[in-house]
Design brief:
Elements (H helix, E strand, L loop, with lengths): L12 E8 L3 H12 L7 E7 L6 H7 L4 E5 L4 H14 L4 E7 L3 E3 L3 H9 L5 E5 L2 E3 L7 E3 L2 E5 L4 E3 L9 E2 L3 E5 H7 L11 H11 L3 E4 L5 E3 L10 H18 L3 H18 L3 H16 L14
Parallel strand pairs: 1-2, 1-4, 2-3, 6-13, 7-14
Antiparallel strand pairs: 4-12, 5-14, 6-12, 7-8, 9-10, 9-11
Helix pairs in contact: 6-7, 7-8, 7-9, 8-9
């Protein structure tokens, strides 16, 4: 059977959702890798989080065959992905949503292998795979598909070898439609960081299982949007960490305080004033933002 005639191992169609901000070349390369998939996606939604580095027409030309969803403001990872998920769930044939960072490049059989891991059990709702981090070459390294949350502080660390992580990364995550209809979409109170951990935790609380496709090959080239202990990175991380603990810890202030103080001390030692400001702003934002429940998909996909 030729790759062109090969069919996905499940009947339900797959819609891909790619959040995008300014990095036109990365998104174009991601879309090119999707065009070569042996399990052909039914739809690709590229969600433009109010880019300024290019025009909408340039983005559409870079991603032929994709539907471009333009947002007027940057709604972060959760808000951008949710816009694509809502569009995907409006299609009755879509049974899975494949969320991908725009700086990922997928081997031709990546989706086929993710789907194969999904069909083992109808209660498997989240499927991930190890990622190849960094630019292609000798320095590229294989990293786990998610993180373990250490101690009562919920600090993300690499999971022990052979162990299922506490959450699968949103950089490459196949999500079953029924899970979203059960637990809701990503919580848009998270701007960037911990929204994937929150979705995984809510799903586990409802009895959904996770799975890993160990042989699926997805390269994560590394984003330049948030990096280097910048003010934005520090603020988003701290606000997300506080929000996650408020939602899932019995003693959130106790759990949040030690990591916050440690990070402040390290940034002060390193004379990183932007990160110091960001941590303080994120700390305040994390406690101040209301903990509204994620929108039910029934109200957003019609």
């Amino acid at each position: 059977m030729t790759p062109e005639n090969r069919q996905p191992p499940v009947a339900s169609a797959v819609a891909v959702v790619i959040p995008h901000l300014d990095r036109l070349r990365d998104t174009a390369e991601c879309c090119r890798s999707l065009a070569a998939q042996t399990a052909v996606p039914a739809a690709i939604f590229v969600v433009d989080n109010a880019s300024r580095a290019h025009t909408p027409a340039e983005l559409a030309a870079a991603c032929p065959g994709a539907e471009i969803l333009r947002l007027e403001t940057n709604r972060g990872f959760a808000g951008g992905v949710n816009a694509g998920i809502r569009a995907a769930l409006a299609r009755s044939d879509v049974g899975f949503i494949w969320v991908l960072n725009n700086d990922t490049v997928c081997a031709p059989d990546a989706l086929e292998k993710l789907l194969a891991a999904a069909v083992v059990d109808a209660r498997i709702g989240l499927i991930g795979c190890p990622l190849l981090e960094g630019a292609e070459g000798p320095a590229q390294r294989r990293v786990p598909p998610g993180k373990t949350l250490a101690g009562p502080w919920a600090i993300p660390i690499a999971p022990p070898a052979g162990k299922m992580p506490d959450y699968l990364s949103g950089a490459c995550l196949l999500i079953r439609r029924e899970l979203l209809e059960d637990v809701g979409l990503f919580d848009e109170g998270f701007f960037f960081f911990f929204e994937d951990a929150d979705l995984n935790r809510r799903a586990a609380n409802q009895g959904w299982r996770r799975a890993i496709a160990p042989d699926a090959r997805v390269e994560h080239r590394g984003s330049a949007t948030i990096r280097g202990r910048s003010e934005m990175q520090a603020r988003s991380y701290r606000a997300g960490h506080v929000r996650f603990l408020r939602k899932h810890s019995g003693h959130p202030r106790f759990a949040a305080l030690l990591p916050f103080m440690f990070r402040l001390a390290m940034d002060a030692i390193q004379l990183n004033r932007p990160a110091l400001r960001g941590n303080w702003q994120g700390w305040q934002e994390g406690w101040r933002t209301p903990l509204a429940a994620p929108e039910p998909t029934a109200q957003t996909s019609s």
